[in-house]
Amino acid sequence: MAVLHELPVVLIIVAGAILSVIAKKLTFSGAIAAAAVGLLVFGGGGYTGFIMLVAFFLLGTLATSWKKQEKHRFKAKSDRSTKRDAGQVLANGGVPAILGLLVLWIPHHAGLLRLMMAGALSSAIADTLSSELGMVYGRWFFNILTFRKDQKGLDGAISISGTLIGIAGSAVIAFIYCLNFGRTFWLIVLAGTIGNLADSILGATYERKGVIGNNTVNFLNTLIAALSVWLCHTLLRL
Q: Is residue 66 part of a domain?
């Protein structure tokens, strides 16, 4: 009977991956990766994990599409493609997927691992929304390391508006998580904000110099957010 309850979500994940290829949102490899991420997040995070992932996908897609032409000239060539490949999917969803797998492998740590999953998705959505909508609504951009005025769209250049939008995105993930698991809203928002700021710091230091690429930065920001949850949980014994 449990399988029958889970089957509709599995079908939704597979159908969503197929439709994303048809709609030219994902490449074939990207669709395979997205399906794998979806199944692992659902497997470890249950319906709450699935809904958080759907929220990230929908809000991220809307933010990316919003005033696309206006943002196009500020983006790097690698970030202008409307199709996302496996690398880009795993950059944002790889850490939540790994955590979902760990829940299945070591279920006695499921509570902490699911909380870390929420932190990772909180960072992913904060980064996406602050980058995409910050370019539209931000008025003054500054380098996160020097605090000097910087060019819109450059790695490590942030705005107050974009940062606040990112925090709002983290709050959406925190709200979804707390509907089921409760009492960790502030921690998820904090982790998302830490991950988002870490993304900008990595962008200003290593990505801008070409040492690492955007996919690596995105993967690391979600990892840092997840580890921030683990650290706070360990220190504060939540």
A: yes
Total tally of structural domains belonging to the chain = 1
Gap between the Cα atoms of 44 and 114, Å rounded = 7
Residue 112 lies in a domain: yes
Concatenated DSSP letters of the chain: -HHHHHHHHHHHHHHHHHHHHHTTSB-HHHHHHHHHHHHHHHHHHHHHHHHHHHHHHHHHHHHHHTTHHHHHTTS-GGG--SSB-HHHHHHHHHHHHHHHHHHHH-GGGHHHHHHHHHHHHHHHHHHHHHHHHHHHH---EEETTT--B--TTSTTEEEHHHHHHHHHHHHHHHHHHHHHS-S-HHHHHHHHHHHHHHHHHHIIIIITTTSS-HHHHHHHHHHHHHHHHHHHHHHHT-
pTM of the model: 0.92
pLDDT digits (tens, 9 = 90+) for 14-71: 999 999 999 888 999 999 999 999 999 999 999 999 999 999 999 998 998 887 777 6
Q: In Å, how far are 112, 150, 165, 208 from 154, measured between CA atoms?
A: 35, 8, 18, 8
Query: Does a structural domain hold residue 79?
Result: no
How far is CA 189 from its chain centroid?
Answer: 13
147: left (phi over 0), alpha (psi -120 to 50) or beta: left
Q: What's the domain range around 219?
A: 2-74+84-236
